[in-house]
Write a structure and sequence with these properties.
This protein starts with a helix and ends with a helix. By secondary structure, the chain is mainly α. The chain has helices at residues 3-26, 31-52, 60-77, 82-106, 110-137, 160-177, 189-205, 208-221, 227-242, 248-255, 263-281, 292-300, 313-346, 351-369, 379-403. It has 15 helices and no strands. The protein is globular. The longest helix has 34 residues, at 313-346. Helix content is 73%, strand content 0%. It has 2 domains: 1-55; 59-403, no CATH class.
Length: 406
């Protein structure tokens, strides 16, 4: 490679890294900024690849993602609305896939991964403070979101469920940092405080999906960090003790946690029935990428009243791209967990090991939450998913390199 090409590649690499840092910080704050930074990162990535005359790094996870892209592209040409599908494929599906490749290849050192994770934590701190401020003043100070009237917080997001998805995805990094060995015990204090803040906000979202995702993620982490299981029991006892002082909406949610007869649950069940009818109308390749809402009234019936997302991202993927689309998407996630767990079980517990566990747990929490919500179809939260997936792959590679003989 010539010196000039090396310089171009180096410049592009640094611009990409700083763009990823910006996405990590502004992800919950400004969709316009993260869209612009994502576009800049993609442009620099393509220039870098052309300059290096190289292709994206290919592994089994990347191959599964390419299969998913191929199925999505096929569904575009068989779509019930070609214009909607081709726009969704280029502006969402391909963009998210490129973000995955960019993150997994750019965060190739411990220093870079640590910086990006720290920026995520800093941004989460700001959002946590905003959530508490909103609880007491009924307004958020970052984007001035209107009050929902109900005693639930949502900070800069459009709904409490979206805020809950963001919180449960980042909480694992606060917990994992508590178990990183350090000679100075007081370094754990900021992470204890940040966990307490984010967990309180999660409770105040009154999002059942977020609560279930939190419980599931902590149980997953406790497979390797045994004390977390006791910690979860402790949190449960604290909530029981504080129960008389909680607001009425949280009390109602706790008392009816396994009862799905409220308006929101019944509404979701009707939407899921619509999603199932849409899926069975073309079970192999679906009605077309991005066309769920376009086709909604055709399968919901005229008396439903409004158009909605599926509120189960797996059902929406199946409805839009069929069983092949769903299976290829699930293959990406399954292979990610397979390689991540193998790395966890075969390497020593270092800082990178704990961050890998956190990234696996973050993706798991996200995957649980989107069973009852729309995260993959929101610009900011879909970027969060693919970013975390890319970060996890980068950490898998770093953990393996750390253990490799010099």
């Amino acid at each position: 490679m010539s010196l000039e090409r090396t310089k171009i590649s180096s410049y592009c690499d640094w611009i990409i890294f700083f763009s990823l840092c910006g996405i990590a910080y502004f992800l919950p704050i400004s969709k316009a900024i993260i869209e612009s930074l994502s576009g800049l990162a993609i442009l620099m990535y393509l220039i870098k690849k052309i300059s290096n005359r190289s292709l994206p790094e290919v592994n089994s996870i990347a191959l599964a993602l390419l299969v998913y892209l191929a199925v999505c592209l096929l569904s575009v040409f068989l779509s019930s609305n070609f214009k909607i599908s081709i726009r969704a494929f280029i502006s969402k599906t391909v963009q998210n896939a490129l973000l995955f490749f960019i993150v997994s290849e750019t965060l190739n050192t411990k220093k870079r991964s640590k910086i990006v994770i720290s920026i995520f934590m800093l941004s989460a701190l700001l959002l946590g403070i905003d959530g508490i401020y909103q609880h007491f003043t009924h307004k958020d100070f970052i984007r001035n979101r209107p009050d929902f009237v109900l005693p639930r917080i949502y900070a800069t997001f459009s709904s409490p469920g979206d805020f809950g998805c963001y919180l449960v995805t980042l909480i694992p990094f606060t917990l994992a940092n508590l178990f990183v060995k350090t000679k100075k015990w007081f370094r754990a204090i900021p992470f204890v405080a940040l966990f307490a803040l984010l967990f309180t906000c999660t409770l105040l979202t009154v999002s059942r999906g977020a609560w279930i995702a939190f419980i599931g993620s902590v149980l997953f982490m406790s497979i390797w960090l045994r004390w977390l299981a006791l910690f979860l029991i402790f949190i449960g006892l604290v909530i029981v003790i504080l129960h008389p002082y909680l607001n009425q909406y949280i009390k109602f949610r706790l008392s009816s946690f396994f009862v799905f007869l409220d308006h929101s649950s019944l509404d979701r069940m009707r939407i899921w029935e619509t999603s199932w009818r849409m899926f069975t109308s073309n079970p192999l390749l679906g009605v077309g990428l991005g066309t769920f809402m376009f086709n909604f009234t055709r399968f919901s019936g005229p008396d439903y009243g409004y158009i909605a997302y599926a509120h189960n991202c797996y059902m929406q993927i199946a409805a839009e791209t069929g069983i092949f689309g769903l299976l290829s998407f699930l293959a990406v996630i399954i292979l990610f967990f397979y390689h991540g767990i193998v790395a966890l079980n075969s390497h020593a517990r270092s800082f990178l090991w704990h961050m890998l566990l956190a990234s696996l747990t973050a993706v798991l929490a996200y995957c649980i939450h989107i069973m009852v919500d729309t995260g993959l179809y929101a610009l900011d939260l879909s970027m969060l998913f693919w970013f975390m997936l890319g970060l996890g792959v980068a950490l898998i590679n770093q953990v393996k390199q750390e253990a490799a003989p010099a």
